Amino acid sequence: MWGRTVLLSIAVFLATAKLSTAQAPGYYGKYIGKLKTLHHSVTGEVFAVDARTLHIRDFTYDGEGPAAFFYAGNSKAPSASGFRINDERGSPQPLQRYVKKHVTITLPDGKTLHNIKWFSVWCDEFSVNFGDVKIPKNLDYPRPQKIDQLNGVHLVSSDPIVVVDAQTLLIPNFSYDGEAPDAKFWVGRGNRPSPQGIRVPDENGKEVPLRRYDRKTIVLTLPGDLTVFDIGHFGVWCEAFTVDFGHIRIPSGLNVPPSLKMLGVAPQSKLNCEVLWDELAFEVRWAVAGDSVVMQLVSKLEDGEYMSFGLSGDDARSKMIGGDVVVAWVDKTTLKGYADDYFLDSKSQCAGTRGSCPDERLRENTGNVRLLNAAMVNGYSIVTYQRPLKAQDELDIDIVPNSTQPIIWAIGPLNSRNEVSYHSLANKRDVLLNFGRAPKWNCPIPETDSTPAAAAARPSSEHQAPEQQLRSSAEPTARNRTRTTYSAQATPAPAPKTDAWEIPAIQCYEPEDGIFYAQMGPTGGKHGYPAITGHVGWGISWYINGLLIPEINVVRGKTYTFVVEGGLDPETPARYHPFYITDDPVGGYEHKTPEERTAVRIFAGARQNRRGDVYPTGTGRLCNWKSDPNQPPADEFASFGAYQRTLTLECDQGEPGIVQWTPDKNTPDTVYYQVRQLASKAVLLI
Fold first, then answer.
1. What predicted TM-score, i.e. pTM, was given to this entire model?
2. Which of 43, 165, 228, 628 has the fewest CB atoms nearer than 10 Å to its CB?
3. What residue spans define the domains of the chain?
């Protein structure tokens, strides 16, 4: 068992909010007005926190009404045509007694302050208004504000900074070379930093010299009761040598939301956690935060590996195809983290707009995942991200907080484009989760409090709850449905060439009739395709006469026939693998740019029409060598021969394709048989 100390500062990002009675500074948002007292002693002052949140100071109600609820609507006056608003605990039950209590409530999904003209305490049973306040037309409610970007010495830079609320700053793509001895995040009064400034804890809540950052998006919380209204600048400051590494001005009078702490909302440390794969300590942790969910993935990954987690493509069972997942990893060289929104169109590598692709490859502006934090701690990759509960486009799937849903997960290698290759691990059984359940930690607890990771896991009253940290930095915008064109050809990512199976080469004049059967099959785990070629595979590969990507020795002047059984359906990339022979060691001709294609010669398996378009001829029914699920995984076989004996050939109905080829004096000494859609690698020696 691993040390179970890898909790990092999850409390910063994964905390559910509850009300406290602590007093807060006197900014509560945009003042709307006082509740008009009509019945049952209803009083209070109402503030707009943001587009969907109201805060009531000193709310009083005697609790004697038979069925009173918070209500809002867009009629001229309060009426039963309005809609209910859950109380500060998220409960839909009738209101209890309140005496000068500070209450923060959220409008239902799809409703904003633009949609309502009044807010009321309303009795449903008798249709009576107990007290109300009018919502001004075109109310300029608080919202996150984008300001300037950092640009200084020691490579200090960022994208425009977002003031999320009065105590929270979002610094997108922050960079700093980490070379100075005592650099800190720094704020203070006035336009320029000075030694009289105030330290701001880093994204993990620590006041330690800043390490190296490479375009990392971070969230910072101002210390104590300090707000953006108290400061005039923010930047990076070397405390030991009193040097300004770069700063920006904080405009005065920003119309931003108050922090939840200022509203009397404090975090609590109850989080959800489930173990996905114990051997690699793969865990998912989460908390629902308003209309979004914050998730953290943790695992012991090799360099160049990803971890993925998300919703099944089937609403009744765990199914990869059609799934909506987040693919996450940490670059162990730069320590930069990634979290990408993916749609799993099929069990194939992303090729053009088909396969397992980032949403942004399929439609512009459809990446609906926001990276919050990433780190390497004691060899474990930790990535924290946020996604909406509601599907934002046709590539997403709803998270239904109070319903059990099937999920899918996987771990595998990245290709050279930093996109997924075929997974090495995935859930083979149905896994069901209720994301809106009462918080429950079903993961091992840290063994000691002495390690930095364990200490960072303890919640702090200074940390903000996720609703505050995770508000969107911009209003929703219309989705652009045009397709994105990618010209870069992904080459296979390197893989270690160790412990490779020995695959016997096919010698000259073998077989005597010169007929080769080209079929698809598994890559053979770590001893197979990756170790043989030195490149990451997608999980499928050519089998020639039953051998995994063998070298084939041929002679010039002799005609060879390839019986191709790689699939016929171009609409299903996982079942369509046109065979061709080329001088290109990379393959994937289908998705090369016109410029890249001019550098490639194809000797067999394709033709050119009158318009100059190249189309494949090496297509036929699909035959697949299938592994036996009751046998050990491929990694456990010492030889290909032993592994091969566990495979079974399964073929679709239909006819194979035929590719004939006669190498001549103009044929290079080394050519390759490839897959037109995907990068592959195998050699023909002339």
1. 0.53
2. 628
3. 30-134, 145-249, 267-469, 515-685
